[in-house]
Amino acid sequence: MALLQYRNIVNYEAQQAAFEDFLEKFKTSPEQTLTHAIGQINIDEDDLSDEYDFMDEDDEAHERRQKEKAVSKQPKHKYADLLQKLADRSIDEVLIELDDLYENDTSEGLKLVESIETNTKHYVEVVSRAIDNKMPPPTTGVTFKDDVLDVIMERRQARNRDLLEAAANSNDPEMAENTFPAQLTRRYTLVFKPRTSDGDKPIKALAVRQVRGEHLGHLITVRGIATRVSDVKPMVQVGAYTCDRCGCEIFQPVNDKQYAPLTSCPSAECKANQSKGQLFQSSRASKFLPFQEVKIQEMAEQVPIGQIPRTLTIMCYGSAVRKVNPGDVVDISGVFLPTPYTGFKAMRAGLLTDTYLEAHNIIQHKKAYDEMIIDDKLLRRIGAFSQSGSVYEMLAKSIAPEIYGHLDVKKALLLLLVGGVTKVDG
Ligand SMILES: [Zn+2]
């Protein structure tokens, strides 16, 4: 019996073109930049409130500042600027806010945002291709100060260009196929930031137990507390080998959890000679991605009475690593994906799979101490708190607030936390 076949009617080329258009043309409106600037306190209609006013400055500086202000009032090409920074190697993450894309969706019927939200993994590749096409030339050349990787990358991109030119001149389609794979020349991680609201109702973060099969492959946001965080380890993305017979460089993209390292040279020359050149893995030319596994657990208020909190595995790659510490309360947006078992476990599990969330965007709920800004409001609150006369009880009650009563135990815990004397030996 023939298997049923169905060709999905998605026009990826048109969507990619729409993404390219968006990356190039998207502008933040002046009002938006102004509201962003409020956080940095620098809006002023005239020069009266300017913080530099007390300094006697010459006209030249004044003029320059006026010019800068005029520039900041013009709409900004947010993503085009981002791509330029990317080309200049000053950043290695591309964050695409789906809010921006949603507001700016001029394309009729392409459903860009919906497509990304429901088939995220695939659209990372589609948008990456759009970014590769729209990447401007770098304004600064690679110098010895740059990373080894950047130097290698520069060579690779130059070679890709040469090969494409040669292929165009000689009409030899085989030559174009010899270019380096895109995974090797890309030096960024593309992440999406989900929409904050759907129409007029805000999109809420899910609890772990609300994540269902219907969310597979979708971009979702999950709230929880990080319980376990693994070390950051390199994960091979593209393995590079060199052949000691013909001098060929072989690249092996790794897309799976497992891979078998190549042993004999697959190049045309070695095949023709039947020489089976030995391959040596070169870690310097290979591409690795930082990788970290995080476990999050439901928060106490998300767990129904009498039930046990559930956990979810989060995989962090590239720029998402080192963002979470154990104990942090986080909203993690990412792609919910199945992960088939491998090896012996796979034989026992049959068709069953585990699931995990591939992190895209992480929002911390608790602020670190060094991020706290002590302003008048906070000082007043601290003052009122110390005047209240019940600091001891309030601090004790703030320990494990989900457990009712036991104030004496909590007081004991508090005293253990903050009390005591330094032990001096001898
Ligand atoms: Zn060889």
Automatic annotation (TrEMBL):
Its EC number is 3.6.4.12. It comes from the Eukaryota. The keyword ATP-binding applies. SUPFAM superfamilies: Nucleic acid-binding proteins (SSF50249). It is found in: Nucleus. It holds the Pfam family MCM. Keywords: ATP-binding, Cell cycle, DNA replication, DNA-binding, Helicase, Hydrolase, Nucleotide-binding, Nucleus. GO terms for molecular function: ATP binding; ATP hydrolysis activity; single-stranded DNA binding; single-stranded DNA helicase activity. It catalyses: ATP + H2O = ADP + phosphate + H(+). GO terms for cellular component: DNA replication preinitiation complex; MCM complex; nuclear pre-replicative complex; nuclear replication fork. Signal peptide: none annotated. Residues 391-426 form the MCM C-terminal AAA(+) ATPase domain. Acts as component of the MCM2-7 complex (MCM complex) which is the replicative helicase essential for 'once per cell cycle' DNA replication initiation and elongation in eukaryotic cells. The active ATPase sites in the MCM2-7 ring are formed through the interaction surfaces of two neighboring subunits such that a critical structure of a conserved arginine finger motif is provided in trans relative to the ATP-binding site of the Walker A box of the adjacent subunit. The six ATPase active sites, however, are likely to contribute differentially to the complex helicase activity. This is DNA replication licensing factor MCM7.
